[in-house]
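Hi there, hope your week has been kind to you so far. Thanks so much in advance, here it is:
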Amino acid sequence: MLIRDNYTCQRTFRLCSGRPGEPDSAVVNHIVPHRGNEALFWDPANLQTVTKQVHDSLIQAEEQDSRHQQGVWT
């Protein structure tokens, strides 16, 4: 995914240039949370490159929100 996405964050379109663990390092993210679904986990169409900062803040907040909504509506 990193090569396919040219090491570019698919949310901010900035180059992921940091060393592992740094805020601007590259992380492969699941677009749709897999929640244990192995097919979804490995599906290349469900993967995107993002920075660690984007992954750890924005995306995790979105997933937390979707879990809360699932609990409310299901």
Summary: Helices lie at 38-42, 52-73.
